[in-house]
Amino acid sequence: MDNAIYAALSRQSGLLTEMQAVANNVANASTTGFRREGILFSEFVRALAPGNESLSMAAANVRDTRLDQAPLTETGGTFDLAIEGEGFFLIEGPEGQMLTRAGAFTRSNTGELTTLDGYRLLDAGGAPVFVPDGTGQVSISADGTMSADGQPISQIGLWLPADPNDMGHRDGVRFSVPSGAEPALGEVRILQGFLENSNVNPIAEIARMIEIQRAYEQGQSFLQNEHDRVRGVIETLGG
Known about the structure:
Layout: H1 3-27, E1 37-46, E2 55-65, E3 72-74, E4 81-84, E5 89-93, E6 96-100, E7 105-107, E8 113-115, E9 120-121, E10 138-140, E11 145-148, E12 151-155, E13 159-161, E14 168-170, E15 174-176, E16 181-183, E17 189-192, E18 194-196, H2 202-238
Antiparallel strand pairs: 1-2, 3-18, 4-17, 5-6, 5-9, 6-15, 7-8, 10-11, 11-12, 13-16, 14-15
Helix pairs in contact: 1-2
């Protein structure tokens, strides 16, 4: 197969992957704590036999997750928490500890704070955050200290991945951290009674989707023209 066709096919595959990522962004434009994803393209070049052109193929197998701050919405909920700055909540997921910016938590029947999916929120020491029965008014300060009736009972942790390049995006609002997490330092704080929105810009994503669709159609047209050219050559030589 001609090198141009190889390159076009690999490009089409990458555009399809990018279209799927953009469609997922649009679908999660209203999901609390969602982080927009993009696709990074890379090129593979390999020398062939002497006198032949090199083989060039594109690949789009690396997802780029954008972690920029999203707008906050005030809810007034006691266990609705938002983060301002670089940091994450640490939760106990089905496959180990995970990071998230989705701060809609609730108190379980056993007194633990959990996500809406039932994953336990962890404190600054990596233990579950527990709110005892009969606890009065709960307040949470900017550093995560949780107090009941003015007495501290726990401290919600603020975390960062030990290796940012090793962080994997999982099911929309959660991130795996194979290399572990470490306490977040610097200007980062928790806001009680707020939730962070998705950082997806729907208008920008729709515009990008149109660009990808047009590029994909151009690629299909090129492949069809190449197919017709090769068929014409074969018919001519075989005639």
